[in-house]
Amino acid sequence: xxxxxxxxxxxxxxxxxxxxxxxxxxxxxxxxxxxxxxxxxxxxxxxxxxxxxxxxxxxxxxxxxxxxxxxxxxxxxxxxxxxxxxxxxxxxxxxxxxxxxxxxxxxxxxxxxxxxxxxxxxxxxxxxxxxxxxxxxxxxxxxxxxxxxxxxxxxxxxxxxxxxxxxxxxxxxxxxxxxxxxxxxxxxxxxxxxxxxxxxxxxxxxxxxxxxxxxxxxxxxxxxxxxxxxxxxxxxxxxxxxxxxxxxxxxxxxxxxxxxxxxxxxxxxxxxxxxxxxxxxxxxxxxxxxxxxxxxxxxxxxxxxxxxxxxxxxxxxxxxxxxxx
Length: 325
Fold this sequence. Notes:
Layout: E1 13-19, H1 30-47, E2 50-56, E3 60-66, H2 72-91, E4 103-106, H3 110-121, H4 123-126, H5 141-144, H6 155-160, H7 167-184, H8 193-196, H9 230-241, H10 245-248, H11 255-271, H12 276-282, H13 287-303, H14 305-320
């Protein structure tokens, strides 16, 4: 069964979380922790992020980040891929580093913003690693308090969320929220108020609550496509596009075939939630090629409304195709 499509709100604040495969404590190694921070800084610079809270634990991370124009999925793909490749190269390993694709949730109220910033920075306390979050080196808490240099967190932006007076009063308000959240003793994502309302585990934003929500490629959200197995998506795409699967799986590089491959990948992964590696296998290609096609289409759809409309029309044609044809 394909995974549900995930919606994104441009410029929104997100709580992002992901765990290392098999629960291994990869980031207990100070060097690996420093490398992770360096990659987050790079992605922030490239994609215009503002990091509002962060905490790197031994086997997972939390980020609270505000995006700019680059969709969250592109930034996260860049981040997790770079971290995984670097770790595998240094340790001469193969295979995945992350347990699953990242989870994320839009933070859509001032109260949730204050709660999530405090929650993220309390992670090492909840885990029993330290008793004071300011003593933990791999988070933004000490920087917000002005006790160390800010390597990731945008301190001024965070403090504006806790008060419009002096820096001292904003820090006092922040500490008050840290104490409040510590008393709540939330232990898992499902207990967090901003996660509890999600209709499914992969929901990032709600089309009903967030008027600017779009699919990852900028398409409309009003009519969700029916669930289709990958074989059905491939068969229907062949019929509506006029491009046979044998052509798509061949080594042909004509503009028509290249366009069709990119569109198919975008629809199969973005609209129907199929895995990149499964699409790659079906087309006799490698997963890296499919990922590049997805990046290509996302960029084109963002910059050219005509491309976005054409892709939406193709997706609708696949969704509404008579299955008996």
